[in-house]
Design goal:
Elements: E1 2-7, E2 13-19, H1 21-24, H2 30-44, H3 103-119, E3 123-126, H4 136-146, E4 151-155, H5 160-166, E5 172-176, H6 182-187, E6 190-194, H7 195-205
Parallel strand pairs: 1-3, 3-6, 4-5, 4-6
Antiparallel strand pairs: 1-2
Length: 206
């Protein structure tokens, strides 16, 4: 089992914790990770872009000039794609970009992403993360004590003071153990997680 340090909110090491190899010590499958990231981004797309084809553009019903004898190229409509104001060739239409990943693939990709954070020494476990008030400076001080700037902060439950304290800090996002995803894990330079959240992750994704 991998062993990582546990820090307090002042950034001092207070203990160590052993991570479950079934979650934090698996083989890093880059193909599954890639598929999971692509799926996440595809599912976020609205797919509402739309443009008109030549059949949908208003006008163009009359032939602009006769077929022969003018010396000009033959034209059938002023709404053909080569005309200004004409329709678009293969115009984009509203569509659903989302696709499905099997549940086993999702879990395997998540385990691989978590393992990559351990391998790269980018996981920071905090014994507890609690504020008695909503204060951005306090959250900033915790991150600075860990020497991280771009971080995903994972909590076990909805700690309102922590979430609101981190909300206005650029490049910092809070998430709960039941809502983490591969894209966010890899997007941020540091994976900051509370000790209780580590236990919850091991219970949920084991």
């Amino acid at each position: 089992m991998a062993t990582v340090s546990v820090y307090n909110m002042e950034g001092k090491q207070v203990s160590e914790i052993e991570l479950n190899d079934a979650i934090f010590g698996v083989e890093v499958n880059e193909h599954l990770i890639h598929r999971s990231v692509v799926q996440h981004l595809a599912n976020k797309r609205q797919g509402t872009q739309s443009a008109k084809t030549r059949a949908e553009v208003r006008g163009g019903g009359r032939k602009p000039w006769r077929q022969k004898g003018t010396g000009r190229a033959r034209q059938g409509s002023i709404r053909s794609p080569q005309w200004t104001g004409g329709g678009v060739v293969f115009a984009p239409k509203p569509r659903d970009y989302s696709f499905k990943l099997n549940k086993k693939e999702k879990r395997a990709a998540l385990r691989a992403a978590l393992t990559s954070r351990v391998v790269d020494n980018k996981i920071f476990v905090i014994d507890e993360l609690n504020f008695d008030e909503i204060k951005t400076k306090k959250m900033q001080a915790v991150l600075e004590s860990l020497n991280v700037k771009k971080a995903l902060v994972v909590l076990e439950d909805n700690n309102k003071n922590v979430v609101l304290s981190a909300r206005n800090i650029p490049n910092v996002k809070t998430a709960f153990t039941n809502s983490i995803n591969v894209y966010d894990i890899l997007k941020y330079d540091a994976f900051v997680v509370t000790k209780s959240a580590v236990n919850a992750i091991e219970e949920v994704y084991a």
